[in-house]
């Protein structure tokens, strides 16, 4: 027997007990007539029947080499029939307290499970029971079998209590990886889900995020169904028919455990290093994404703060759930690789070079890089305080000269008609950004992806229409709740301006888009797709985490279909130009310090980004691919409040690229 077969065999027996436990409380289906049947089937024609849904064994999640990221193991669960609670809640609660004493567990946690979520007086989720009211309530999972045995031996003292062996989801964490934001977690099926989906039974676990949610139908398999005959008292008198469950398929991913471990460690170290610096290091969160530069296959996806996905095993406690959703702790449940979009800073400048050329600026021209640039009454400053003189667009990318891009963007904005232009006016900078995939979801096979934002005229008009009432109210009343007087005056002045003309795309807005600032937002995954297109010659791949599904009985492997491939706005000449510029960033530009000792056979090309946010420390970005001449891997990193792009994000990317160097 194969390892998979032994693994399945040990767990399959656990479901026998579950079927018997659910039989007495399953949904009533009415009379069943079975023409020509004898025995139990004939008897069923005059008796009620009930159908018991038997969950299938859930498929595993594996990395590209077969290392297990999610699997099942047997666990002891103590349940209580709902009728005991419904008939006499005070007596039921006294019984639950006695159960807690036997198990050595806090009574409060078990008592919370006796309430249906949404029921008057119920505690907040996840303490309450969110599953179906037709099945026994799991009071505790993963209990000591010896302690649970004491409950079984005293049925007179613990009426309605049952002890079962059931499979629970566990995450082995090979090489210490979490991968929590990729794998996701399971949650109890709600009564509504049971009613809506015939393949979901009362008490089933379903995917709630990550791959567990995206591929829930594949992993969950097909449940078995046992139709039983019952007498007038609801007691089972025989089995009418039985359909065996079909186990879920294993899901093989493109993730590589070693690459994932390198990404998680590099990100954690980047945040810790910044916080240990003198001068107010305040890095608090971030993400790293690594893709195959051609196919878009995701080999690593890390988000910080992270957590141990096993916290969900057997049901999460209210305290643990509060920790995962605590905004002050960085909301560890949130994926900062796919679901959080931030200003991407200068990492968008390759797109802006494309836009500048399309707006009529010669690729071979020279452009002034002054220390500052004035648009109306606003002064936009370069990150350096001195005039760098004339330079090519290539050198402007290498040195990250903001004022070159302010100028080409502002002149393009004027050519479009400035503030008088209509919402459908052609905007080469917004068009180029969208052409590289910004402002739209990548299509990755993970739920909850952010589309980011390309703030063009249409977006500004739509946003103003939705918020103008509040803006105009603030223009009239100000911000009395703000303690600082100067801050109050500033906010009210902004509200007055936006109330009067907030739908207009101003020159400063156009300049900010060109350098990835202002209202521009992108996720690390979006930038990874953009840099894949830059590296591979102009094709945007659809990122995919899942590679194949495997039938655990036959070993049959079925590839997960690849997503669409879209052409980026990059011709051959412009592509070569930008790849040379991105290589120059690493050899003689803003990232040269970090990559000074790069291996000769592993040249890197990339771009730093330093995103400024009012009242906060800069956010550090770096996007890169390697090897520079024939890109195989793309890696992007963001460290929120991590300072300059070469300070936190670039070192993290360097470490991950080195880890990918030997990966075939």
From TrEMBL:
Annotated protein name in UniProt: Penicillin-binding protein 2
Location of this chain's protein in the cell: Cell membrane; Membrane
SUPFAM superfamilies: beta-lactamase/transpeptidase-like, Penicillin binding protein dimerisation domain
EC number from the UniProt entry: 3.4.16.4
GO biological process, one term: regulation of cell shape
Organism of derivation: Phycicoccus endophyticus
Keyword tags: Carboxypeptidase, Cell inner membrane, Cell membrane, Cell shape, Cell wall biogenesis/degradation, Hydrolase, Membrane, Peptidoglycan synthesis, Protease, Transmembrane, Transmembrane helix
Molecular function, one GO term: peptidoglycan L,D-transpeptidase activity
GO cellular component, one term: plasma membrane
Annotated family: Belongs to the transpeptidase family.
Domain Penicillin-binding protein dimerisation: 54-237
Enzyme class: hydrolase
Principal localisation: membrane
One Pfam family in the UniProt entry: Transpeptidase
Chain coiled-coil ranges: none
Membrane topology, from the record: Single-pass membrane protein
The Penicillin-binding protein transpeptidase domain, residue ranges: 286-657
